[in-house]
UniProtKB/TrEMBL annotation:
This is Aspartate/glutamate racemase family protein. GO terms for molecular function: amino-acid racemase activity. Gene3D superfamilies: 3.40.50.12500. InterPro entries: Asp/Glu/hydantoin_racemase (IPR015942), Iso_Racemase_Enz_sf (IPR053714). Pfam families: Asp_Glu_race. Belongs to the HyuE racemase family. It comes from Lacisediminihabitans changchengi.
Length: 225
């Protein structure tokens, strides 16, 4: 019987701008039934408020509850900025919740010692860095994390100007590479640049979409047993 996967979105980026999540699920989980639950304003609210308010947290809880009510077998969060709110949402539903950046954080923490976290949305820097630090602590590894914001790039992407977005991200990554041994792309929307950034920097560049959906596929396989 096909698994029902609910994908939670906090903007339209993976719905109308970057269809990478759908493409990866189609590739790695063929036959799965995918449902999308979108609060197209909550990421903008978190950016505007410079953090996750109780109201924003509750909106993510409602998204997860809606996904559960629709019969989802598993919930996949496509947003890194709202990671802490997803932890709260997971405690308010019985359906398993998988975060897109979980597998990436484990890999970063197990491989790097000076880890650069590059983001295009300011509110993603701390949740991504905190998740990597948490995984490093669990692994008993000592890591140093440097945060770098590529200011304005996400707005440029959402306006439809991919080339300018890409140029901005590449410039920041090349500069960040001077100080670190691993680069983590905090926004899944930067994922398609990973190979280019590896070539430009000569460093491991970790991106969440494929790793995140591979981890989702593993969890789905476990549920099917």
């Amino acid at each position: 019987m096909p698994q029902k996967i609910a994908v939670l979105h906090t903007s339209f980026v993976f719905v109308s701008v970057e269809p990478v999540i759908n493409e990866l699920i189609a590739e790695l989980l063929p036959g799965a039934e995918v449902m999308h639950f979108v609060d197209s304003d909550v990421l903008a609210t978190v950016v505007r408020e410079q953090g996750i308010s109780a109201s924003s947290e509750q909106r993510m809880v409602h998204l997860a509850q809606a996904a559960e009510a629709a019969g989802a077998d598993i919930i996949f969060s496509a947003c890194s900025s709202l990671g802490p709110a997803l932890d709260v949402a997971a405690r308010n539903v019985h359906t398993p919740v998988v975060k897109i950046d979980e597998a990436m954080a484990i890999l970063a923490a197990s491989g790097g010692t000076r880890i650069g976290v590059l983001a295009t949305v300011p509110t993603t820097l701390s949740p991504t860095s905190d998740l990597i630090q948490l995984k490093a602590d669990e692994l008993g590894r000592d890591v140093k994390i440097e945060q770098r914001l590529c200011a304005g790039a996400f707005d440029v992407l959402m306006s439809g100007d991919r080339p300018r977005h890409d140029t901005m991200v590449i410039e920041q990554a090349v500069d960040l590479a001077k100080n670190v041994d691993t680069i983590v792309l905090a926004q899944a929307s930067m994922g398609r640049l990973a190979e280019t950034l590896r070539e430009k920097t000569g460093l491991p560049v970790l991106s969440s979409p494929r790793m995140g959906v591979e981890y989702l596929a593993e969890r789905v396989a476990e549920l099917a047993k």
